[in-house]
Amino acid sequence: MRKKRGYKRETPAELVRDYKLFAIACEGSKTEPEYFGIFEYFSPKIKVDIIESKVSDAEMLATHNNRSAPKWVLDRAMKYIERVGLIDEDELWFVMDIDKWSPEQIREIAEYCAKYINWHIVLSNPCFEVWLYFHKKSDISKSKSVNSQDFKTEITSFFSGGYNPYKIIHLLPDAIANAKANDSDPDHYAPKHKETKVYLLGEAIMNTIGKNDFEDFVKNKLPNLRKLKIRVPETKPTKSPKRK
Question: I need a labelling partner for 107 at 20 to 30 A (CA). Which of 74, 147, 187, 237 fits?
Answer without folding.
Answer: 147
